[in-house]
Design goal:
Protein Binding, DinI Protein, Chain A, single chain, mainly alpha
């Protein structure tokens, strides 16, 4: 009987020590309330404008090169024509590559600018989760079927970061 009591206590202790407390957090909502987000958006917008300016310059150079070629085509030798045509074709290919890579460059730059905000949210979330003894925190998105709002840490994280939210939000 003592053995059975010991096994029962061991199992009960093991089950008790492995209990989990799960919470959720809406990171997108938190980011939308951060005042720093406007600065990040401005930086991304400025970077995008810079890329657009570079693209316009490349396109202008191509247009000028084509106009020059058409104007002086009769004065070029066959080798000069071939060289000019290859140069214009290379410029056109560069523009196409630049356009294709532009969106990726913008996304990479946006991630770079957003990283400090994500770090700030992460640190606040760690404090809130540790304070509430949460063992797991899930992102609140469309893949979660049901969430009891009592376990949503979004507002607590905002409060930890010193950001006030109106009740209707």
């Amino acid at each position: 009987m003592k053995y059975l009591s010991f096994v029962f206590l061991f199992v009960a202790f093991t089950i008790h020590s492995q209990t989990t407390k799960v919470g959720t957090v809406d990171v997108d909502f938190i980011l939308s309330k951060m005042p720093e987000l406007a600065g990040v958006q401005k930086q991304v917008q400025d970077y995008t404008k810079g890329l657009e300016s570079d693209l316009q310059k490349k396109m202008k150079d191509l247009e000028d090169g084509v106009a020059d070629y058409k104007q002086n085509e009769t004065n070029y030798t066959i080798n000069q024509r071939k060289t000019k045509q290859d140069s214009l074709l290379q410029m056109e290919n560069d523009i196409t590559k630049f356009q294709q890579n532009g969106n990726q460059l913008i996304l990479l730059k946006q991630e770079e600018y957003m990283r400090p905000l994500y770090d700030k949210v992460g640190k606040a979330l760690e404090k809130v989760a540790a304070g509430g003894e949460y063992t797991q925190v899930l992102l609140r998105d469309n893949s979660i079927v049901y969430v009891d709002n009592r376990f949503d840490l979004t507002l607590a994280v905002l409060k930890e970061m010193g950001i006030e939210v109106k009740p209707e939000e």
